Amino acid sequence: MTQMKPVSRQVPFGDHFDYPADLPPTPYEQDRRDLLARYTHFARERGHEITSYLIQPAGSQEQLVVELFDATTSQLVVTCATLQRDNGGSGVWYAIGTLTDRARFLPPHVHNVLVLPAEPNSDLDDLLALRSITPMWPVDGNITFTHRHQQTRIN
């Protein structure tokens, strides 16, 4: 019998990655994971509750991974280790698709955040704004993150 509703379960952060476990991480994937770890440290230092989700869409055998969900601010966070739109399937377009896909299975009023390695140019910022995605990037020696819409540090 086919599963009629999606199944979403919260799991501890860091136990699951949106990358095949049986493959060694590529240089891009390692950079992305490092960015994920720095952002997680930043959020936890501010008292934010960080978790992950595993989602099985209705009628699918696939399992989707939400690596980082900030329960304190209701933010779905995806990291992208490049500012390029298409980086061999790992660029900003892929990250936008990941946010769009995963957000469908989370509670309403989730804010989509894309953590990038550096400040995006105005064109990329416009693209993300069109999709209601807040870009964030590291500053202050990569220990603090900010975004253009606030121009102050995130608390």
Task: Describe this structure as you would to a colleague.
This protein has 155 residues and is α/β, with parallel strands linked by helices. The chain contains 3 helices and 7 strands, in the order E-H-E-E-E-H-E-H-E-E. It has a 7-stranded mixed β-sheet, sandwiched between helices. Strand 6 (133-139) and strand 7 form a beta hairpin.
Short description:
By secondary structure, this protein is α/β, with parallel strands linked by helices.
Strand-pairing-aware structural class: alpha/beta
Mean pLDDT: 85
Sheet of most strands: 7 strands, mixed
Largest sheet: spatial strand order: 1-2-3-4-5-6-7
Tell me the strand percentage band. Answer: 25-35%
Q: How many helical elements?
A: 3
How many DSSP E strands?
7
Helix content: 25-40%
End-to-end distance:
47 Å
Tertiary shape: globular
Uncertain segments of ≥5 residues (pLDDT<50)? 150-155
How are helices and strands ordered from N to C? EHEEEHEHEE
Radius of gyration: 15 Å
